[in-house]
Write a structure and sequence with these properties.
Order of helices and strands: HEHEEEEHH
Strand content: 15-25%
Mean pLDDT: 95
Oligomer: single chain
CATH architecture: Alpha-Beta Complex
CATH class: Alpha Beta
Structural class: alpha+beta
Strand order of the largest sheet: 1-2-3-4-5
Distance between the termini: 21 Å
Largest sheet: 5 strands, antiparallel
Length: 167
């Protein structure tokens, strides 16, 4: 279930790393529900931009959040740049309780290249620009089933599931 169904307020994300923000979100959810919690933080990291937008991916172009403005800003910053390597990154954290000293943490990294034009209508965020060479498609063109099997979130979730088997 989504935390909104439990009336959990949105957590602050004041930290500089994906893992710290994911931990903050999981602790917030567990604290407000009294239940174990699973939370993630993710974004796109561009090599030429030293990992930016990174943790700022959702609000790269400011408030209110806008995928269109974020993509336009990214395209503007990469204009004339030949190194367009990027990757989506995700960290998922599982906590048994808010003060869990041994959080389970898994990560996923999905490598690609940023195009200079939009392709595809699926997905969200930077998906229409994120080209996945092994599929010869953008993330926005990939079938949902494929994306849910190979994406950064899929990789991180598989890692958490494996760790949950062993406790």
């Amino acid at each position: 279930m989504a935390q909104s169904e439990f009336g959990v307020p949105e957590a602050d994300e004041p930290h500089r790393t994906f893992v710290e923000n994911a931990l903050e979100k999981a602790r917030n959810a567990s604290f407000h529900t009294g239940l174990p919690a699973l939370a993630d933080d993710s974004g796109i990291c561009v090599e030429h931009l030293s990992g930016e937008p990174g943790i700022h991916s959702a609000r790269f172009s400011g408030e209110p959040k806008s995928d269109q403005r974020n993509n336009e800003k990214l395209l503007e910053m990469l204009q004339g740049v030949s190194d367009r390597r990027a990757h989506y990154y995700c960290v998922i954290v599982f906590l048994r309780h808010p003060e869990d000293p041994e959080p389970l943490i898994a990560e996923g990294r999905w490598r690609g290249v940023l195009l200079d034009e939009y392709r595809g209508s699926g997905g969200f965020g930077y998906d229409p620009l994120f080209y996945v060479p092994e599929y010869a498609m953008t993330a926005a063109e990939l079938p949902v089933e494929t994306k849910n099997r190979v994406s950064h979130r899929a990789q991180a979730m598989a890692g958490i599931m494996e760790k949950l088997k062993w406790g």
